[in-house]
Amino acid sequence: MAKLTPIPRRGILFVMSSPSGAGKTTLSRRLLAEDRNISLSISVTTRKPRPAEVDGRDYHFITQDAFDRMVAEGELLEWAKVFGNCYGTPRKPVEAALIAGRDVLFDIDWQGTQQLAETMRDDLVRLFILPPSADALHDRLIARAQDSPTVVAKRMAEAASEISHWAEYDYVIINDLVEESHKQVMAILTAERLRRRRQLGLTEFVREMTRKL
Ligand code: 5GP
Prior knowledge:
Blueprint: E1 13-17, H1 24-34, E2 38-40, E3 44-45, E4 60-61, H2 64-72, E5 76-82, E6 85-90, H3 91-99, E7 103-106, H4 110-119, E8 124-130, H5 134-143, H6 149-163, E9 171-174, H7 178-193, H8 202-211
Parallel strand pairs: 1-7, 1-8, 2-7, 3-4, 8-9
Antiparallel strand pairs: 3-6, 5-6
Helix pairs in contact: 1-7, 5-6
This protein binds guanosine-5'-monophosphate.
The site of guanosine-5'-monophosphate has 13 residues, from strand 5, strand 6 and helix 4.
C-alpha cells in the first residue's frame, strides 16, 4: 500500500518548566532522543558556563552588552532574569521551525512562559513537571554531586517559588517513575500534534478525497 504523505502542519512550541531536581532534564533528553521532529531551543545567557557545559549546545554564552543589544533589536522572543543572570530565547530559529512544521522544546522558567503565552498563544503547549514529594526533591538535589549543601538549601527555597506557578500550565506531570512520565510526555505531544487547527493541510486533503467519492 502506498505510504500516506503527512498532512502539512504548523509546529508546536513545547515548554517544559519545573523546579530544578524534578527530572526535567532527563525527560527532555528522552524526548529529544526519541522524536526527530522536535529540537531544543538553545537560549542565550549571561551566566558563566558550568564545567560540563558546551557553548552552542547547552547555551550560547554571551556578554551582558551582547544580551542588551539583542533585547534592544527585538531579537529575543522572550527573556528573563533568573537568579541574577539574564536568559533569553533567540527569535529566528523558532520562527523558522514553526513555519517548517517542526516542533521546538523550551527549557525556560515561568516568566518566559508567560511572555510566550502573550505573543504565541496558539502555538504554545505548556507542561509543568512536579516532583512526587518535597522529600523526593530534596533527595534528588542531594544526589547531584554538583551541588553543595548551601546550594541545595537555596534550590529548595527556589523550588517553592517556581512551583507556585503550576496552575499557569496546560498540563502537569508528577514525575515519580521516569518511564511513566516519559510516556505521558509523548502522549501530550502526540495529541497536540493532532489538533485540527495545527493540521494546515487538512482542508486540501479532505477536498481531494471528497472529489473522488
Ligand atoms: P540554569 O542556569 O540552571 O541553566 O537555568 C536556570 C533557570 O533559567 C531554569 O529554570 C531555566 O529553565 C531558565 N531558563 C533557561 N533558559 C531560559 C530562557 O531562554 N528564558 C527563560 N525565561 N528562562 C530560561
